[in-house]
Amino acid sequence: MEFTKWRHVFKLDPNKSIDDASLEALIHSGTDAFLIGGTDGVDAENTYRLYERLAGCGVPLALEMSHPDQTVRGFQHYFIPTVLNAGSVDWVIGHQARAFESYGHWFDATCVTGQGYIVLNPEAKVAVVTEAKTSLSLEQVVAYAETGRYVFRLPSLYLEYSGTFGSPDVVKEVRLALPDTHLFYGGGIDGAETARLMASYVDTIVVGNVIYENLDGALATVAALR
Ligand code: 1GP
């Protein structure tokens, strides 16, 4: 799966409900992929239920494998997050090692990508759970990104503002510092304007919450990039 060509991704949370008509609209929206993942109440059962509804839909399906308990077979791609600014080592490397301990035999290098997250919204569940150090200066965010790229050699980085629209200045500086790194951005994209702005700095924008709050707004984020 060539994630490096993705410009737009819808992130679906297995712990949130979505009706068939909305799911169908997302499938036909023109998005480049579905990323399945969430922080709260996500387990193998609800992940599989969502996977089953999307299997064979023609849009690439990827799992954000943040915890061994939510690992499900069959996805075309598995992103393994490591939270670079986590306050607890388990989220940097711990859960991932446990996932490989149980499921490593499922994977080969062609279907797994390490993703270095920098979690920047202190209110987000992911920030609370990972005890992320979110009070960072612009220079410190860039330094975390450079560490992910040059020390851990991660093939992709993810600026995660989940639940709020992030700072375009921060995103822009990371882009300038790492022009060749595949950058994902997620957080608060709710329509055409926010989609276009962040997409001008990163390779891939990820759109989550608005799917459940305003489907038309969600669909507009795809249209804006076409
Ligand atoms: C969440 O980055 C994604 O992991 C998308 O963020 O839900 O705020 O769109 P939103």
From TrEMBL:
SUPFAM superfamilies: FMN-linked oxidoreductases (SSF51395)
UniProt-recorded name of the protein: Heptaprenylglyceryl phosphate synthase
Superkingdom classification of source: Bacteria
GO molecular function: transferase activity
Enzyme Commission designation: 2.5.1.n9
Gene3D superfamilies referenced in this protein's UniProt entry, alphabetically: FMN-linked oxidoreductases
Key word Transferase present: yes
The protein's enzyme class: transferase
